[in-house]
Design a protein that fits this description.
This protein is an alpha/beta fold. It is about 30% helix and about 15% strand. It has 6 helices and 5 strands; from the N terminus they run H-E-H-E-H-H-E-H-E-H-E. The chain has helices spanning about 10-15, 30-40, 55-60, 60-65, 85-95, 110-115, and strands spanning about 20-25, 45, 70-75, 100-105, 125. Strands 2-3-4-1-5 form a 5-stranded parallel beta sheet, with helices on both faces. Helix 5 (about 85-95) links the parallel strand 3 and strand 4 (about 100-105). The chain is globular and about 40 Å long. The relative contact order is 0.25.
Length: about 150
């Protein structure tokens, strides 16, 4: 059974506002579950180091051309960094909101740098395991940006 997250409404609002939204955080905190349940009709591509993703790496433009339905959810995109410049170019050419949701685009050193390279995403979230994260009541966050807007 899926329990609606507090951040769902914020995510929906951000996707309606910006061409790309980035969700990042630790392993097994529910990022993919949040996105899959918030956008059940969207195409979700999961990148995995075990599964062959050479087509995305060798020709990112062609790969994105083959996935035109929006929003396009790119889960575990850190395994296909070659897509980031192609995403940036597409977003720069077409500023329509709700094009891409990037999930777990992060590095431990400085996640903000990678987010800036992804084509001007509308948001940067680090999801975490908080008791309040699974309630649809007042948000409780260590990051003041979650409560704004």
């Amino acid at each position: 059974m899926y329990i609606r997250r507090m951040i769902t409404n914020k995510l929906l609002k951000l996707v309606k506002t910006f061409p790309a939204v980035v969700i990042t955080g630790a392993r097994q905190v529910g990022k993919s579950t949040l996105v899959r349940n918030s956008f059940p009709d969207a195409d979700m591509l999961v990148f995995d180091p075990v599964i062959d993703i050479e087509n995305a790496r060798q020709d990112p433009e062609l790969f994105l051309d083959n996935h035109l339905k929006k929003p396009l959810i790119l889960d575990e995109i850190q395994y296909a960094p070659e897509l980031v410049p192609a995403l940036k170019r597409r977003i720069d050419q077409n500023r329509i909101s709700g094009q891409y949701i990037l999930n777990r685009f992060t590095t431990m050193e400085c996640p903000e740098i990678n987010c800036r390279k992804s084509g001007r995403p509308g948001s940067f979230y680090r999801s975490g395991r908080f008791q309040s994260f699974r309630n649809d009541t007042k948000p409780i966050s260590r990051n003041p940006g979650w409560n704004s807007g």
